[in-house]
Design goal:
Elements (H helix, E strand, L loop, with lengths): L6 E6 L14 E7 L5 E6 L4 H17 L4 E5 L9 H4 L6 H12 L10 H12 L36 H6 L15 H17 L3 E3 L19 E5 L15 H18 L15 H11 L6
Parallel strand pairs: 1-4, 4-6, 5-6
Antiparallel strand pairs: 1-2, 2-3
Helix pairs in contact: 1-6, 3-6
Length: 296
């Protein structure tokens, strides 16, 4: 057996504007190996994004002291459709430019209040001068450049509605949708700055596929890497709650167990190359700006 990772942390994120636990809040599921190398599961339900970041930092630093390799998954978009950075007039590597931009602009306070809707409206103004491509907000946040519903369609001459990986995963919600059930856009806006902080804070943390390539990996590929951060889509699995779990807890437990089982059977490394049919142009977009959902 040539297992790639020692631990698997799966995160169900939330863009809630108030501290919250239980249903529709942040859940962190952790599979870690004990002294006998047996997997043990534990979970955390931090009430705020700042508390979640602090817990993740604590876990990753503890694992690093053991020289462990950790797979860290987040259930929100880790990239935007190809061309977004250019439309925002950002320079440099597209993914890194967007991450640094959101890290500067998103303000997330200890009480979970944040400015995600005003940032989305500002991005719309830069990109199109209209309420495009971001949409969805409560009545109090409606602006000329941010509307409650999608008012402008995507065309071949604009930014795509879905990323390549969204189409492969048959996702129902684009990263542009910010509000109402099933939306993932607000989680993406509030989550990327924390991923960026982890990448800067944790030595040996790398982002898939941007930092390690859209390709199969093995243990040798992680010689200088302690943490691989990836996008996940827990709904890809049919799950069943146990012991009164919330839906979110069930999903982070199930997806973590799924990846750990693949790893135990020497099959996890292969899926970093993707399972969908991807051409070379799409591969470039995936590696430079769009990202990929592990497992598709």
């Amino acid at each position: 057996m040539s297992r790639i990772f020692d631990n698997y942390i799966m995160v169900d994120w939330s863009a809630a504007s108030k501290p919250n636990t239980g249903n529709d809040s942040i859940w962190i599921g952790v599979f870690k190996r004990d002294v006998r190398l047996q997997l043990r599961f534990e979970y955390f339900n931090p009430p705020t994004r700042i508390a979640a970041y602090d817990k993740l930092l604590e876990l990753l630093q503890a694992f690093a002291k053991r020289d462990d390799k950790t797979l860290l998954g987040f259930d929100f978009g880790l990239g935007y459709p190809s061309g977004t950075a250019k439309a925002l007039k950002l320079e440099g590597h597209p993914q890194k430019a967007i991450y640094d931009y959101l890290s500067r602009e998103i303000k997330d306070k200890p009480d979970n209040s944040n400015n995600r809707f005003s940032v989305a409206a500002m991005m719309n103004r830069i990109i199109s001068g209209t309420a495009f491509p971001f949409w969805g907000c409560p009545p109090r946040d409606v602006l000329t450049t941010l509307q409650p519903k999608k008012t402008i369609p995507h065309t071949d001459n604009t930014l795509a509605e879905m990323r390549i990986c969204d189409l492969a995963a048959k996702a129902s919600s684009p990263v542009w949708k910010l509000y109402s059930p099933g939306s993932v856009g607000s989680q993406t806006l509030t989550g990327i700055p924390y991923v960026n902080k982890l990448l800067k804070e944790i030595s040996g943390a790398k982002l898939f596929p941007f930092d390690i390539g859209f390709k199969a990996i093995d243990k040798a590929d992680l010689d200088e890497i302690n943490v691989v951060i990836t996008e996940i889509y827990p709904s890809m699995l049919k799950t069943k709650a146990i012991d009164g779990e919330t839906k979110d807890l069930t999903q982070v437990r199930a997806i973590g167990e799924y990846f750990a089982t693949l790893d135990d059977n020497d099959k996890l490394g292969a899926i970093f190359a993707g399972l969908a049919n991807i051409d070379e142009n799409q591969k470039v977009a995936i590696e430079t700006e769009e990202g990929w959902v592990l497992g598709f």
